[in-house]
Fold each of these.
Amino acid sequence: MIKIVNIHKSFDTNNVLRGFDLEIETGQTIAIIGRSGCGKSVLLKLIVGLLKPDSGYIEIDGKRIDKINEKELYEVRRRFGFLFQGAALFDSMTVEENIGLPIVENGNELSSGKLKNKIAEMLEIVDLPGIEKKKPAELSGGMKKRVGLARALITNPDFILFDEPTTGLDPISSDNIDLLIKKISTTLNTTSIVVTHDMFTVKDVVDKVAMLHNGKIYFEGTPEELTQSKDAVIKNFINRTE
């Protein structure tokens, strides 16, 4: 469970989060939506301790991450997988090397053969078998996102953070990513946080939606409750993103 309590975060005079509260249950898939610049990606960085709040706190399974030392924070971060908006693959590395990087960087305890098997397993999960030797330049945008997801999964994380997973993709590739998010959440029982503008992702994939507006939670509920809302702010957001 992730518990976010009264978080405030500013950058100079820009008050991004102004008393943000949210609870994310274990195994839940939640979408964080809101206008560009409202603090969605900042929130992800706060959750994994890459940024520190000005006030308020975050708990991961009952442990306040502002009260632990660097070693303990590192252990908490190892429980997270992160799919970056641009996939963030290393161009000089093969697909195999990109996916295996978290294992290698964390002190590889697997033999070369077992690591290769693990990478192949991850590629099967994201429906890209047999592309281990390709370079990122040989992949489409959708394929890069799926390789990035395979890399996020290889450490068997309890939590996965998705930062705009379908941005820049064609509709078919976007649908494939949505299906993978749903598949992973149900089969691996991960807790997934999806920052997105994509209302198709919101409607088809997540259990719960939280809408950020003016630095706070403006709406929290199911996708159905969101789309049926008569609130002017919510309707305006949905109409502009559909």
Amino acid sequence: MTLGERIREQRKARGMSQEMVAGRLGVSRQAVAKWESGQSAPSAENLHRLAELLGTTAGSLLDSPAVGSGAAEQAYSLLRAERKAESERRRSRRQRNLLAVLAVVGAYLVIYLLGRIFGTAPGSYSLAGWLFGNDPQQLSYLYGWLLRQKLFWAALLISALPALWGKYRFSATASVGFALGLALGELAGPNPAGAPWGHGHDGWAIWGGCFLLSLAMGGVLERLSRRGLAVKSRAFLLWCALFVLGTAAVVLLVKWGTPVPTGS
């Protein structure tokens, strides 16, 4: 008698339908039907749960009663091995997620230091003052504004936390969007006649647009990746092109909407 025949026999002896067994085990009725027809076999864990549900042992389902104890031991060994492998996979996944978070935090710290190096006005500062000072006269407008409004650290959290749940592509895209928005905002932001945009500087709008765009594009990339997106695929190249075009559109829209400087 095969494993499938034993499962069917025990199920009928208990007066249970395939639907009832499937519901109790959390599998589909088709899966139970395939077990009984021999098209597939239950995993070690499902075999153990199935045996408990049918009031028998895994060994009895796997083999004849004469060698049932040996088969049961084999089934339990397989079950332990599967659980150990699953535990290892989860531990490895947690480690990868943590490393991804640390990578994002490291990227933001590099951006922070670069902002201090290139965005700090010449002056006499102590090391602590240079590293942590937020004087508007000390820092470039956009970089200092992000720090004073705590938006720098809020963006860090938005970028890093999804990596804890394996959303690496979202976190990477958000980090790139933040850095790109900051750089473009500093370079293209000055607008002496644009006081209504932000005290004579419209870089904040460029940064905000680029960062929001990166969040949307990061979500799209995650969805595409779940469908098996390859780096060299046409879909990925199209995604990259849309990201670049979207970033350029943000800068052009902001600059197009700012007031034109007029002479006094």
Amino acid sequence: MRVNTERLKEDIEALANFVDKSQIGWTRRAFTPFYEEARGWLKDKMKSLNLEVNVDAAANVIGTLPGKEKHLPVIMIGSHIDTVKGGGRFDGIIGVVAGLEIVRLLKENGIQLRHPLQVVDFTAEEPSEFGISTIGSRGMVNNLPETMLLRKDLQGITLREALKRSGGNPERLTLEARKPGDVALYLELHIEQGPVLEQTNHQLGVVRGIAGIQRYRLTVEGEPNHAGTTPMNLRKDALTAAAEIILCFEQLCQETYTEEVVGTVGKLMNEPNAANVIPGKVTCELEIRSLDKDIQDMIITQLHHAALQISKRRGVSVQFDCLSQSEPILVQNNVRSVIEQACKEVAPTMFLSSGAGHDANQIARIAPIGMIFVPSKNGRSHCPEEWTDYEDVALGVQALLKALLLFDQQLD
């Protein structure tokens, strides 16, 4: 069974037509008309393959291919078709069209799996206007509490209302939630969103795990004062204190650990933000990602200690608030070894970790997960320049198909 590269290209380019042309790149935000039109196209594609198509309580679009042994739990292939603003054509999308192509190949070759197969387009994987990401996969595993459903976007629409408009049924989230044992395995094909595969001349990456993410808000309060009349040794400058803490954080994350660590301060607010006033208050948000939670905790503890020393020396106050934490996800050894076997039969392969979050993070709460990466040109993603050669997408689908056939025989 050989993957049809041209069909994959046609599907990806077809989805690229459902975009907000007032935005740069390929923008298809969740809960917009462009998103709903794209999902309509996807449902039609699923129906043309005689899949049983339904929309669950979390508005996930699901196409089901029956298996020989109806009592077996489903194997799930999925991803998402929503994008960030100014996004590209491949992130998430290739994981969904991969499912379509695999169904085509199975049907063309008269192969029926033992397990039922579900191809899933998860709702709103990207950070949404409600401040929440992985909405559909959260809903599928009953991790979308009322506090999240009541969040509002800038138009005052609640997430609960948005899910209803997309065909979901929030009142049935708990009733329809998947439980351990309902899903035999979740598989996802995704672009790497980084430069490693391309730089090392590998075409496939077997994902070892998905990094846990901890986010904190750091607030430094000093004393605003006149920039021309306050001597340097009498200043309580919140911005210079925050800068020293940020550089300390960077240094801690650059140390060598048993697992890779990345740390970022990507948001900073300075008050009163005037050229002739000593900054009195600085608020910034930092995040740290790693496959090892103990390393993350250790770095944050060391940063707390360093920030306390800096604040005493500079005469400012420092406060840390934890915004969110997600646990690292490690791919089970038996799952990883089968995916490795499948990938090595197709193209040069290496192991990688995922520094980005995925719907797999949520599905891992109820089932084993596995992921395959394909190269991203120049490591670019979440931008109009995002590109993966169609031949590499096809190799990823070929490896995913091989892995699926192996798992179908070995599981249960």
Amino acid sequence: MSTVYFTDIDTTPQMGLLSKVEALVKKAGLEDVIEAGKLVAVKLHFGEYGNLAYIRPNYIKVIADQIKELGGVPFLTDSNTLYKGSRANAADHMKTASLNGFTMESVGAPVVIADGLRGSDEIDVEIEGEYIKKAKIASAIALADALVVVSHFKGHEQTGFGGALKNIGMGSASRAGKMEQHSESKPVVREANCVACGMCERNCPTGAITVQRVARIDYDLCIGCGQCIAMCNYGAMSAGPGGTPESLSKKIAEYALAASKGKKALYISFINNVSPDCDCWHINRPPVVEDIGILASRDPVALDKACIDLVIKRLGYDPFEKAHPGITWHHQLDHAEKIGLGKATYRLQKVACFGR
């Protein structure tokens, strides 16, 4: 049985939330994850511009400082989005991170976009899963020595909720890896958006794309790699029809397994500003539950289960099921446990935080 460490949001003049985060990560075993001189990927979500529910940079600075005190070399990271928004390429992504307060000056660690300029820097990680055989993991995350995964717990319109598994699974995939999770078919051309620039044709590895007035895809040659989506600046290439919420949830779990393969990791989740929808929206709706606290564990499955349990216990019902009828989070947790990512049974231990 895994241990999930928890601190509530109550504060005193002697012990604020930043001090609580410091005490929490120490108790949860950060020192067992960090080795001197090693590169530590602090995986987080920088927030789509306009969405204000993301984790404050102040908290991230505390975590980065603790990593540095242990001799580690932290960098803040996330991968580019599959959809066209304020984080679809590294230039826009870093600008968004800066606008939302994630800078070297404010956090004390550099921002590295994990899958490169256009979302195509990836490393294949073999896992031989039920759905995924080789996961396309963003290079900076695949090459990191250790992981500290900092997640904002919230709802999600396709997977029920988004927590540690969603953060590391979807968030560590390259753009092609995201397409592999979201879609069970090959890319399609949105002709109204195509400007015939030829980027997709020049970067297609199999010569499946030709561009005259608009791009055309030869599906006999297309291998569904998603490179055209990564290279298009205009939203003219998009993933084809997707699978089911169940298959998406299971693929996320398998990508989480690949992203964490061979790495020591600590997972931290914030149950605050719990919006009903994903943080990838450029807006956030009002919270579905009051702020509850901050949790940490070496086990991402136990951590996600503890988060949902605390929310349901506080309200007496599942707010995510209410917000998104017919969408269940059970698939993600059940599959993650099945493939060995962790255990859904856990012991919740409250961290005693005393004023200094």
